[in-house]
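3.2 Worked example (two chains)
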Amino acid sequence: AKDVRQAISHAVPRDLIIQQLLFGYGYPGITTPVAGNYKTGLPIITGFDTALKPYDFNLTESRQLLQQAGYFPTTPTPPGFWDAYGVYIVSALVAAIVALSAVYVLRVRRKPLRPPSMPSTSTAP
């Protein structure tokens, strides 16, 4: 678990996130919820260990740590028939079922419509 956490930390470009998403406002975080500025060594909250330093952004190191933890890169499997055409097959089946249901309702179950019987509540003299 330690190697995985370190690999994730190596894979996060903290400075790039702050520069591009936060327009330079902010400091790279190391721990949470205890915060501080590791560059100046000033704790923002009591309890921050000013000796902590974040891991550098290094994808090669991240990959090596993941391999040490037992995670190896794999090649993605090509999409199969169902992945490529499944949506179209399901859509065609639904359309066919709706069409057959409509034919059944209109031809087999058709009954003449009778007007609803109205109660004779005429109050005419």
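3.2.1 Second chain
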Amino acid sequence: MSILNEPQGAGATEDSNDNELLIRRKQPGNVVIKWLTTTDHKTIGTLYLATSFAFFLIGGVMALLMRAELARPGMQIISNEQFNQAFTMHGTVMLLMFATPLFAGFANWIMPLQIGAPDVAFPRLNMFAYWLYLFGSTIAVGGFLTPQGAADFGWFAYSPLSDAVRSPGIGADMWIMGLAFSGFGTILGSVNFITTIICMRAPGMTMFRMPIFVWNVLLT
């Protein structure tokens, strides 16, 4: 009887260990760490989509403030300088912090699946590119917390208006540094996508058999 009971006891011990490991993995702290350190292309794509939607809400608030200010003549809600800041940051957020990362999120989710790749070519580089985007975008928007406010020279940053004389505040410097970080992350993500499409297609997936979305990712 003892011989028959030993395997059952060992199996019960293994089951309890598996359950304990599963409980640990489901703890909130472990879930947060998993999302913050992930290299899975689907999870990173979800992070891109969620972050871009958050910046969309921020840009939408700026748009509402500008439209409310223009509803009637005179100064109603924000000053002239604050209006220029909202105009500058609204364009920057909607184009570079919402639209571009939104496409990157869909590309991370869909493109590897459509070409039969298990993941992108450089998973850690993919994660690093996302954090550069988030870090740089936060720096640029954080200019609103400075005493002089955010950048106010227009999101095209014309040189007569964006020099040190006409834009002396630190918000302009944060705008430039933030876009530099975010832009570098976009470049790294583009290199990752191009390498994945060219080098990691499934057998039989020729260039002219690729779906149109993959071609859009490659050319965009």
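3.3 Remarks
Residues 1-37 form one domain.
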